[in-house]
Amino acid sequence: MRVRVKTVQRRIWALVLVPLLALLAVWTFTAVLTVSEAFSASGSASVAERLTGPAEEAIAALQRERRSAVVYLADPRRADALAALDESRSETDASLRRLWRAVDGEDGLTGAADSRLTTLRRTLGELDRLRGQTDSNTIPLSGALDAYSDLTAAALRFRAALPPAADAGDQRHSSAIAGLAQAREYISQEDALVAGVLGTGRSTDTERRALTELIARREAVYAQAVPDLPLEDRQAHESFWDSGTARILAEAEQQVISATGTLPSDRWEQSTFDVLEGTGVLFADADGRLDDRLDSSHTPLVLRAVLAGGLGVALVAGAAWFTLRGGRSLARDLTDLAREARDAAEVRLPGVTRRLEAGEHVDVETEAPRLEYGDDEFGQIGRALNTLQREATSAAVERSYTRRGVSEVFVNLARRNQVLLHRQLQLLEAMEQRSQDSEARVDLVRLDHLSTRMRRHAEGLVILSGAAPARQWRKPEHLTEVVRAAVDEIEDFERVEIRRLPPFVVAGGAVADLIQLIAELLENATVFSPPHTAVQVSGERVPHGVTLEIHDRGLGMTAEALREANQRLSEITEFQLSDTDRIGLFVVARLAERHHIRVALRESPYGGTTAVTLIPGELLSEAAEPPPVRERLIPARERPALLDGPVDGPVELTASVGANSRTGDGAAGRAAAGEHTAEHTSEHPADHDAERAVPRDPADPGRPRSAPVLV
Asked: Which SUPFAM superfamilies match (predicted)?
């Protein structure tokens, strides 16, 4: 199954930690096994060392009690036999108590030693019954000998299981030591058997066969055990059995077996005592060498435990330090690269872009310095990132300079056009005043209107280029006059209906921009609505200023289009050359942002779109007097109405709107020439209260003014 991680840094740590944890697990497993084996061997050796002495004392006491019991059964009338039996029993009880105390204080017995200890406890439980039979003389001599031999055999098996064997050599040596102990047991059994025979004063064939069998078992055990002993022990045993002490015992054994003559009991006792003492010394020497060998065999276990524990810890710690340091180094390099990439993409390059947009000078070497990296793969990535950053910064600077140059070209061309258009307007006004031909005057008015619109488009180009427009207003103007001037700057001005507006005066510094803003909104309303419908302009006082609402009766906009248009109006973004279909929105947004005017689009109650413009109160003041009343030169029914009330439904115009020039200009020209104009068939009453939407020149009420006076 694929492990899902989110970052490269986590992947690195996964690659580092997984092998490290696996190594730690393997080391832990090995160390536990090795250390536990060393502790187990050391514990077993310690237990064997503490229990071997009490076990050998118990075996020797049982052997002595056996001889005393057999001697007592051979002649119960002997007083010294009973005293010797009681004394040996006391020694046996004392040695068994020491053994049980030693065994009860140890918890380290396992395996064969533990099972043989259980057998020894169960076998020694018959000791009291055997003693009772001996005291009551209800057990034969051979039966007592066999019963006590069973007790010593259980003790010998427990003793043989105590020394722990580390390897096969140690196992053979330990088995040889157990064989020596068994051989001494056979000598002790011979001693007890012969002591009983000597006590009765006679020997039977059964007893002689038993003695012969014990001698054969002893020799067989020696023949099997001695070759497994170390050389020194083998030579010591061979020398002992070739010595006079062993020959004396052998002669006594042959004398008992052959039943030739009478064997003194003291001679037998002395010979067996000497042999048991000699073999005991050899047994102790061989057992000591076994202990030394076992101790030396424990040294590799301890050494392995130390190496697995100490050196293993050092190796694991070193591997952990190396891997963690390497992983931290990789993670740090990746983090540094990620931070530098994020800083370049989210901080430096956007900052350069903002500074370029603000017109500041940007040095590529300062904003995208050449950072030094190593020669590894991370260094290659860093150098590539450095190159990308420098190229992106250079491209942004070049693009800014190019855009700035294009904007300057546009501004330069627009300024020149403005100058020429302003001179053209002055020339047209002069020609209008001198002209006496009505038809020529109509054409001049049309040219005046077209020039006004051309000047507005040139100013829009200046605004899009980020420069300030050249027109500035001298003094405050009535809001109604501002709206009329805006209507005068669009093509289909005849379709605009202006409701009565609140009596406010607009600050002079905002008049030109507000005229431009309202004209752009009116232009959109007339372009995106059917030519036979009217566009209404209404105003209302609100707590924060005045709202102007422009209603058209077009098909409207989709919710997505409205959202996008309102976003462009509320967010001042850099103008893109690909957005040529929404130039007016960019112009409106720039003008609104300059004077903190809020513009929003929404669905119109007439089915089209409503543009709501909130003019803040800082730009307005109460009008001291109403706006001037313009002279009416043509019948009211032929002009767009300035309505006092709401309009129900669209207003239909029978005359061709596009055929006429501006309502004021064309009508005035035709009126001066005496031409007959088409009648307006609006069904609204109160035409006699209507007023021209286009402002007129106060100096010449008979001539419509094509645009507000600018400086």
From this structure: ATPase domain of HSP90 chaperone/DNA topoisomerase II/histidine kinase
Paired residues of 464 in beta bridges: none
Q: What are 551's strand-pairing partners?
A: 536, 610
**Domain ranges in the chain?**
8-314, 362-470, 476-622
The pLDDT, as a whole number, for residue 35 is 64
Q: Using CA atoms, how far apart are residues 704 and 694, in angstroms rounded to an integer?
A: 7
d(CA 371, CA 380): 12
User: What is the dihedral angle through the alpha carbons of 295, 296, 301, 307, rounded to the nearest 10 degrees?
Assistant: 130
Calculate the alpha carbon distances from 636 to 494, 605, 667 in Å. Answer: 13, 28, 11
DSSP state, 700?
-
Question: In whole angstroms, what is the distance from residue 668 CA to residue 691 CA?
Answer: 14
What's the CA gap between 107 and 105, in Å, rounded? 7
In eight-state DSSP terms, residue 696 is: B
Q: What is the pLDDT of residue 103?
A: 82
Per-residue model confidence (pLDDT) at position 276: 87
Q: What does pTM read for this prediction?
A: 0.47
Query: Tokens in use for 284?
Result: 């102790």
- Amino acid, single-letter form, for residue 356: L
Q: Does 476-622 carry CATH code 1.25.10.10?
A: no
How far is residue 35's CA from residue 19's CA, in Å, rounded to a whole number? Answer: 24
CA angle 557, 658, 640 (to 5 degrees): 80
DSSP β-ladder status, 598-603 and 535-542: unpaired
Residues across the chain = 711
DSSP 395-459: HHHHHHHHHHHHHHHHHHHHHHHHHHHHHHHHHHHHHHHH---HHHHHHHHHHHHHHHHHHHHHH
For helices 8-74 and 312-343, angle between their N-to-C axes, nearest 10 degrees = 170
Do residues 206 and 146 touch, judged by C-beta distance below 8 A? no
Residue 492 token pair: 């289909």
Q: How many CA atoms lie within 13 A of 558 on its CB side?
A: 3
Contact 275, 237 (CB under 8 A): no
**Which residue has 């039966």 as its token pair?**
143
Residue 697: per-residue pLDDT: 40
Q: Which residue has the tokens 């077209």?
A: 450
Dihedrals phi, psi of 646, to nearest 5 degrees = -70, 155
Q: Which helix (DSSP H) or strand (DSSP E) does residue 498 occupy?
A: strand 496-498
CB 59 within 8 A of CB 156: yes
The pair of three-digit structure tokens given for residue 644, joined into one six-digit string: 């006092």
Q: Which residues of the chain have pLDDT under 50?
A: 1, 3, 5, 578, 631-711
Sign of CA dihedral 231, 237, 242, 244: positive
Query: Across-strand partners of 537?
Result: 498, 550
